[in-house]
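Internal ticket #5521
Category: modeling
Description: The requester needs a full-assembly model to guide mutagenesis choices. All entity lines are attached below as received. Residue total reported by intake: 605.
Assigned to: D.W.
Attached entities:
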Amino acid sequence: MAPSAAAPSILLLLLFLALLHPAAAAAARHRHRFSASLHAASPNASEPPTTFFEVDRPIRPPRGGAVSGPCSTLLLSGTFGATYGRPPVTAAYTPPACLSGGGALALAVLEWSADCRGRQFDRIFGVWLSGAELLRSCTAEPRPNGILWSVSRDVTKYAALLGEPGEVAVYLGNLIDKTYTGVYHANLTLHLYFHAAPPPPPQQQQPADLIVPISRSLPLTDGQWFAIQNATDVQSKKLSIPSNTYRAVLEVFVSFHSDDEFWYTNPPNDYIQANNLSGVPGNGAFREVIARVDGEVVGAVWPFTVIYTGGVNPLLWRPITGIGSFNLPSYDIDITPFLGKLLDGKEHDFGFGVTNALDVWYIDANLHLWLDHKSDKTTGSLLSCDASGLDLNVNSEFTGLDGQFVTSARRHVSATGWVKSSYGEVTTTFHQRFSYENSNVFRKNGTVQIVNQTIDAKSGIFVKDTSSVLLSGESHQVFPLYLYTGTSEKVGDEYSLVSLVEFGINEKKTSGGKLGFFYSSLKNAQSARGTMRVKKNLVVSGLGKTHQVFKYVGTDGCYFRDVSSRNYTILFDRSDDSCSKGAYGGSSAKLKDQPARRKLLVKKL
Ligand SMILES: *[C@@H]1O[C@H](CO)[C@@H](O)[C@H](O)[C@H]1NC(C)=O
Ligand SMILES: *[C@@H]1O[C@H](CO)[C@@H](O)[C@H](O)[C@H]1NC(C)=O
Ligand SMILES: *[C@@H]1O[C@H](CO)[C@@H](O)[C@H](O)[C@H]1NC(C)=O
Ligand SMILES: *[C@@H]1O[C@H](CO)[C@@H](O)[C@H](O)[C@H]1NC(C)=O
Ligand SMILES: *[C@@H]1O[C@H](CO)[C@@H](O)[C@H](O)[C@H]1NC(C)=O
Ligand SMILES: *[C@@H]1O[C@H](CO)[C@@H](O)[C@H](O)[C@H]1NC(C)=O
Ligand SMILES: *[C@@H]1O[C@H](CO)[C@@H](O)[C@H](O)[C@H]1NC(C)=O
């Protein structure tokens, strides 16, 4: 599908419809990929490059006490042209001199900044330090005049790794040919901030003493992540942990691609068979990642539905990118209750699988370990563990290509165990409770698909010693998603595509204990709609409009942003980082609720 010699006077969008099998169109309509943009032959030299961005809370050093920095170090500078199937770009890592300067680390930020020009797909990439993943991200799609973007992630929790020599690796599998010309150039920089005076007492858990990667080792010709290709595929790594560990948290990175890029839209297999839709990815619309230690379920991840920069209608994500697409969320599973089984100095098997998976899920994890500095041996035992199976229900009703599929699922995981160290005998309970509702409606002979999904994930931690409660924390995440895609009847070789996406992250966290009280509330929502008129494989016109509202209120500060774009142009952009009343349309009242919440928490303790 070479770009045709279209009338050069009109600003034509060239769109390559990657998956346009006519019978498969119903389910695959939104899988269109944006691979070319304005008539690329003659970029307008006076147009500046576009800056893409993901709306997020700016990363700042913790409040209280003077902070110096940043002390910035370029870790790696890479060019990603024909990199698909090639070894990752690597660079030796030496801890920056300022890190051994005696100051206590207040904040570490990893910054990826990149540019690209031409035409290119969205590409997934990962950044690893000594095998531990520090960033999972998706590239922005370039324009003929070039684009720029940067992503920052707080990497303070990897302090133990940052202090040791190692190797930085970046895998970004890109392909270059006559059509896809975009080469990505990127710089990876580490910014360090230090407490200028003695640091204030910690408000949150201190970083782990040791981080053990659960990933694939170099040399490789792709990413250090495991690739999970089907529902029975379990990828694992055997490793032993120090025998003086007293706390362990598994941090899991997840991204889904190819047949499962839009897993929440996949119809059940009986729909595909009945309609002869070979080539349409199926297995239904439910997925979850299961983490196992020695075969036993220790926790799950019900992932946020990240939409990459080429997803649904690529015009929606320019220049405001989809939530989580530049900085994919990672998910924590506290496995401290299981430590009793892992303290024998022997190797244990850490494995990951994906329920109902289709090719391909990229998964790996970092095991954060806290060590007893006053003893070389801790002991422990698992007291109880309840990982009941998945409760999954699918109701499907259809006639031909039209119908409805309603899927619901639940899971609960809970474990309690004690660990005896020089800090005492501490009992930890970690629990997760998930629920999921998904409805998929196909109408108009399968040309309209409407997905309405809610994922609800609660997790909690309760830590006590023989005399008092040390920590009680809860996190509640809700991921709503509404997705409409509709294609008009084809008239000749022309049709139009309409899409609407509304999705977001609502998250509340509370914790109390020895370190004090912490509360945060995040509401991050995007609403995007777009149209495209397609003639042959050429989009002769199109429109993308996106509106995002981000509201964070917490004991560690506030951030508000309300931003909207249309066709690359920002319509308005308001932001505020004060916690003052009025700035958040009433949400500052939530801060006032704090004493009440604190009371509630204390009651629970
Ligand atoms: C519905 O779609 C199928 C497959 O694309 C096609 O064969 C059929 O003719 C369509 N039916 C109607 C009523 O448009
Ligand atoms: C090139 O871009 C400049 C700046 O955006 C604009 O003023 C000018 O009209 C553009 N020229 C063409 C031929 O599109
Ligand atoms: C990377 O850093 C070099 C040197 O500072 C700079 O010239 C280049 O523009 C940077 N590239 C990107 C993509 O930020
Ligand atoms: C699942 O994937 C694994 C790993 O690629 C492969 O060995 C196995 O044969 C696959 N199973 C099925 C049923 O396709
Ligand atoms: C599917 O294919 C089979 C065998 O080719 C055929 O008998 C059946 O009518 C087809 N069904 C539909 C809905 O096209
Ligand atoms: C999506 O489903 C939820 C719960 O079933 C419902 O409350 C909501 O109105 C639905 N949203 C849309 C846009 O249909
Ligand atoms: C948005 O851009 C497309 C493609 O250049 C164009 O067809 C459309 O008219 C633009 N719409 C607006 C409102 O600017």
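Resolution: model delivered.
Comment from assignee: Residues 44, 46-47 surround 2-acetamido-2-deoxy-beta-D-glucopyranose (ligand 2) (CB under 6 Å).
Ticket closed.
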